[in-house]
Amino acid sequence: MSDDPTCALCGRPIPPDVPQSLHHLIPKLKGGKNGPTVLLHHICHKEIHATLSEAELARNYNTPEALRSHPRLAKFANWVAKRPPSFISRVPKRR
């Protein structure tokens, strides 16, 4: 069992040598500068911002549970969960 932190989106461990980033649950542009953050794999963080606008994040997707409930993010998390924690891929641009 690893002591690595767990990604708030996909649930995989985040080893120290893997690209990672802090996600502001309420975007900084929407007043969340000093608000709560969660640790994510960089690929998971990019997928969140490719999927949702800052306004949508602030209004409806400001908890890890809400993020995981979004259909595209749930599908992505399910897909990426089968990959190793160090998996990196290009994330498509916002649709």
From TrEMBL:
Residues 7-50 form the HNH domain. GO terms for molecular function: endonuclease activity. The keyword Repressor does not apply. Keywords: Endonuclease, Hydrolase, Nuclease. PANTHER family: HNH DOMAIN-CONTAINING PROTEIN, TUDOR DOMAIN-CONTAINING PROTEIN. This is HNH endonuclease. It comes from Marivivens donghaensis.
